[in-house]
Amino acid sequence: MHPSTARTAAAGERAAGSVRTPLETRDDALVIGLLAAAVIGIILQITMGGIVRVTGSGLGCPDWPLCHGSLIPPLDYHAWIEWTHRTTGSVVGIVLVAALVRVWMRHRSDRWVFWLTTSATGLVVIVGLIGAVVVRTEIHPAIRTLHLGLAELDLLLAAGALTFATKGFRATLVMKAAKSEDRLVARMAWIGAAAILVALLSGSYAVWQGAGGVCSTWPLCDGRSFLPQSSLAWIHMIHRLFSGIAAVLILWVAHRTYRLPSASRALRLASLGAMGLVLVQVLAGAANPWTDFDQSARAAHLTLATLLWADAALVAILTALRSNDALALRGIRTNA
Asked: What predicted TM-score, i.e. pTM, was given to this entire model?
């Protein structure tokens, strides 16, 4: 056999072996299931945190980690809302620890999954400790905003670990080639996701400063003047300004990523989801003053913002993601 032919055959065997390895995270249903449960749990926890905020249930359990000195709260509306929020966070922590143990045992060589899962697990502990401090003391709104921001960052880490564990939703769905326009759009996708997060946190900061309900009309603050008439109104309108900029930016990014010739089906679905969530979120934001800041409208606004942030981050991850599957890469080169 000619030496070059032998080398080619050996390379093909190594590539095929790398695909069939039993330690691939995309073949580990337990890791994928645990990470998916963690992502869903973090979204639910943030949603419950929003409900705690809008219903004024933050002191429903005045102590920590117990609730009125007991594992099970009394038959009180506010106590059960706060307890559910805390319990959801505890379950998320347990699920992430289980995922981390599995990754340490079976997938330490997969550095992205390893470090993202480790970081998500460590951060959920920090978020819980900050939450305990928030309960025990009257803290500046900036610290409460930091608490929410870290929870949103934990969602990013868990979603990133899940995405890399599935190798971009199976090798047949990865992007076909890396072109220069892909890299430009990938950078803009991260900027768009960051803009969504800034808008989200600015809204929470406005609420904690007491500026959440000072503008009774939409899109203007009082229906007459373009300029706010008080410092609280300025805080509220700055949030709307950030939200408008973020919405336009993420719509542009989602449109560009959807139209990329190298886009995977997963990326196109995420892009469509981002465009739809932007439109629904704008309506939810407008519904707040239209409904006189009804509790359900306020809670839905935060939940949709969290979903939009997660979707925008997923678009950014998938735009840059490349397959680690040798056979998939060979097929990509063939089809490019």
From this structure: 0.78
